[in-house]
Structures are given as C-alpha cells and as structure tokens.
Amino acid sequence: xxxxxxLAYYHQGTINGYTAKTAPIFMPNTVGGYMPGPRDFxxxxxxxxxxxxxxxxxxxxxxxxxxxxxxxxxxxxTKRFIGKAPAFLVDMKAAIRYVRHNQQLIPGNVEQIxxxxxxxxxxxxxxxxTSGNAQFFEKYLQELGAANESDxxxxxxxxxxxxxxxxxxxxxxxxxxxxxxWNRVQMVTPPHETTxxxxxxxxxxxxxxxxxxxxxxKDEFVKYLNGLSLIDANGNRLSLNADGTGSFLEYVKDxxxxxxxxxxxxxxxISADTGVHVDSGVVNGLDWDxxxxxxxxxxxxxxxxxxKMQNPEPNLFxxxxxxxxxxxxxxxxxxxxxxxxxxxxxxKAINPLTYIKSADGQTAKYWxxxxxxxxxxxxxxxxxxxxxxxxxxxxxxxxxxxxATPHSGDYDLRDLFTWIDKxxxxx
Length: 427
Ligand code: DHB
Description:
CATH topology of the largest domain: Rossmann fold
Bound molecules: 3,4-dihydroxybenzoic acid
Mean pLDDT: 98
C-alpha cells in the first residue's frame, strides 16, 4: 500500500480548506479486467496505472491511498492460483481496516474514506461500498491477518462498474438481442513493464445457437427485472413486458436522452445517426434500435459467462487449482467445455447488489456512478439497476451516463472532486 499526504499538512497548512486531520481519504484502485491491480504512485509508467488521478487528488488536498489488490491471473511458486474471487475485495477491505487501525499515524479522516475505480475496478469500489463488514469476508480477512476494524466506507465512486455478473449475460441480450454482429478489440500482447498492451480489432456474426441463446437470456432478464420491484423518482414501479419493452426501457432511454441534452447544451453536435431526435435544440425522443445500431454490439452470447470459459469472468471464479468456472446455471448446463459451477455463496458475495437491502453489509451513504452512453462492455441496465436500487433504499446517488463516452473512467476528475468536497462538507 502506498500512502500520499500533501506536504502542506506537515507544515500546519491547508488545501481547499482541508487539514491533516480533516482531509478525505481517497482510495483509487488499478484493477482492470479482474486482473491484479498493483499499488500505484505519481509518475508510475507501468501498466496499469492511474498516476494522473493520484497527482490531481493530492493537489486537491486529499490523502491518497493506493493498495495493491490480487487478481485472477496471480499464481504462487507452486503455480496455485492465489488471486481468484473474492481476493480483490478481501485485499481492499484489509487495506481500509489497516488505515483505520493506524488512524493516529496516517493523516486524513477515516470517517470520510472514498473508493474509486473503473470497470472491474469500479465493481471493486461498488462492492466494497455496499458490503462494509459483511459476514462473508470475515474468515478471509482473519486468514490474511487483517486488523480487527471496520471496513465500511463513506462514499464510492464507480466508473462503468462491470458487476452483477450473474445477471449481466441476460441484461446484455435484453439490450442487444436485435444486433447479430459484434466487434471489439482483443489484446494480442499483454503489457510488459512500461510497454503498453497491443490490441487488434476483431469482429464476427452470432451463430444460430448464439441467436437462440440470446432469446432465452433476454426472456430471463425480463423475469429478473420484474422481480426487483424498482421504483422511479416519481414512485412508479419499473417493469418490462415479455417483449422487453416497458417502463424500465423508457427509464433507461431517459438517462441517455438527458445525456444527449446535456451534450447539446454544452455545444456538442449530435448526429442524426444516433437515433436521438432533436427539435430546436431540445431532445424529444430516442430511437432505441437505431441508437444500439449506432453504438454496436461488442460481445457474443453469453457475453460474460461464455460457453468456452475464455472470458475474464469465468476465470475470476476459478479456485486454487481450477482456472475457470461458470457462474450461471445457463452456461453450466450449456457449457462446451468440461466445467464446474462456482459456489453460489461466492457468486452472491461479490455482487454489490446483495447487500443493499440486507442487514448484513453496511452500505456507504454517498454514491457517484458514471457509465458512458457509448459503453458496450455491459448493458446499460446494469448500472441503472445499481443506481436505482441504491436510491430506492435511501442512499444518496449521483448517477449519469456521459454522452459519447466509451468504457473508461476518471475523465471528469474536476467534477468528481467537486462532488467529494460537497459530500464531505456535510459532516
Ligand atoms: C473489464 C471489461 C470488460 O468488458 C469485462 O468483461 C470485464 C472487465 C475491465 O475493463 O475491467
């Protein structure tokens, strides 16, 4: 773990009104693709890093703590896997407990810890944010020798969190069922020290089997969504019809229309190819199918728990000896390789939604969730469900889908820090 304290705090100075005692503690992680997320530092040239974020956060007056987290590819000297789920969360929690345990030594306010991450790192932030002191993690934390302290946090900042994995396949087909070709970039050379990874573009068509599976998964999502009993800002129940249309779809579209309006208001142009209807500078409709054709499909079917277990997610659910496991009954029963189903308690425990309404797991009061309006890595439904469940449970959620923004994070640090300053001034 690396700890960075603005120098001013060692000279009784203040930055943006914060002192060594009152500065919020900002904890970004470098997790991506559920791979190991090493501890980070200003000027870090290795991959992955968020070193610019760290520099800006220190300059803004936050105490910044960057903990190294294990990930799915990690092995020990005997080639045993040592970073499968739930290791990333256990390590993040252990880091938070350590900070609390040493609060007399480390500057910053332990009552205002804010986590931050992108994609799998956004999921890390979200799950740590909902599961403070949850029972499931206790034995792992004891095993690790973590301090006997609370790991509950004040706020979570999550960029495009790839979470709710066991429902993400169904959500993806609810969104992309009509689109039968996909395109994405594939890593051909992994990063090495300071050399960035090399990617190539690949594309393909869904097979007949994938098209059949897409329909089955889409139907599954309708049932799942209707079982959540989500409520919109006006107190109306959000639901879906058997064909995937309904108030939940309109609710998702509304976030995208708001995003387009904000972009228009700030002087950006919106192409008619997006399916956004603009009348005299006002967005007054969205052609959903056209919008999806515009952003295009990225993944095959199933999008996460793929039947050959080549994706990051089955690999996250492996164990010491097993590289990958399925985590949905659908993929386990349709698997094209020899496979096992991951433990249901584990699948549930790494899903941030599990804790929101539960007495087990203390949920952070404040949330900032961003998911780009061009992000195709997971369905829009996934972050929308997270934000809505949190709101429905009474938490304070700042949620938006920035226009023309792909799968990425930390692109609006100034706004993120304004939000942090606002929520930290409340107490
Ligand atoms: C990430 C992206 C994905 O599309 C995915 O399935 C898992 C993780 C990431 O960028 O962390």
